[in-house]
Amino acid sequence: MLLVSIICLLRKHGNTSKKAPVLVENPPRIDHPMISFQELCSGTNNFSESNLLGAGSFNSIYKGTLANGTDIAVKVLNLHIEGALKSFDAKCEVFCKIRHRNLVKVINTCTNADLRALILAENKLETQTQTLGMIGYIAPKYGSEGKVSKKGDVYSFGILLLEVITRKKPTGEMFNANMSLRRWVGAAIPDRVLDIMDSELLSTKHEDLTLSELESIVLSILELGLECSKDLPKERIGMETVMVKLNKIKLSLP
Q1: Strands ordered across the beta sheet of 106-112
Q2: Which residues have CB under 8 Å from 102's CB, separation 6+?
Q3: Is the pLDDT higher at 67 or at 130?
Q4: Are 86 and 126 a contacting pair, CB within 8 Å?
Q5: What does the alpha-carbon distance between residue 180 and residue 158 come to, in Å, rounded to a whole number?
Q6: What is the DSSP string of 51-101?
Q7: Calpha distance 35→57 (Å, rounded)
Q8: pLDDT tens digit string along 36-94?
Q9: What is the dihedral of CA 36, 42, 47, 48, to 10 degrees?
Q10: Residue from 90, 95, 92, 106 nearest 9 by CA
Q11: Helix H segments across 110-238?
Q12: Which terminal Cβ of the chain has fewer Cβ within 10 Å, N or C?
């Protein structure tokens, strides 16, 4: 979610024209049957503690099952946090536009006077069987074995960071055995950051950021992606460190 927040802020600063705010009552359209609050309550046993997957300052996540048998995870926003509603609106907009096989798909939202929630697809049984199909996103050591590990997850996250910023897929035609996305980025930074970043981020007007500040922020994200995706597992940083660095990047945004 931190990565999404950072991208939200960069896109926000990059708006070239004034746009109407995204209304919570009318979230972006998602191609999925409407899910009522009552169905969420039923599917999560009234958001019981036994269904709680995790909780933090900003949200809680519950597992559940819809009436049609679909397994879901429900991310419930803590409405007592300052700026929570604006953050929810921005995340709705970004999540509904992003389609990536390494990101959990948002299938719907649920809003009322007391609740703001993102409803996520939960594919518990597909994690290992799909690993072999994610060539380019997983560490070489695990790619041939289909194993999932924390260090492997860090590698995947690092590659995803590089893809989000450059808008280049690691499986794209320009990459091969001699030139990977990671190697391409590594060869370009720190001097050619603006040459490899997503043209949409570069071409838009950032009213609160100078070009130098934007370049510095993007460089920090790319460097983090490279740290996460080092070849040797013991050389990769842990997700705790990743979160600290992402928070630092987020706080550097005006």
Answers
A1: 52-55, 59-65, 71-77, 115-121, 106-112
A2: 134, 137, 156, 160
A3: 67
A4: no
A5: 13
A6: GEEEE-SSEEEEEEE-TTS-EEEEEEE-TTSTTHHHHHHHHHHHHHH---T
A7: 25
A8: 889 999 999 999 989 888 766 567 889 999 988 888 888 888 777 666 666 666 666 65
A9: 180
A10: 90
A11: 127-131, 140-143, 150-166, 181-188, 193-196, 199-203, 211-228
A12: C
Percent of the chain with pLDDT over 90: 22
Q: Would you say 26 and 215 are in contact if contact means Cβ atoms under 8 Å apart?
A: no
**SS3 of residue 106 by DSSP:** strand
Task: Indicate if the alpha-carbon torsion angle 174, 179, 183, 184 is positive or negative.
Answer: negative
**Coil, helix or strand at residue 178:** coil
User: Which residue carries 């510095």 as its tokens?
Assistant: 216
Residue type, 57: S
Count of residues in the chain: 254
- The SS3 of residue 110 is strand
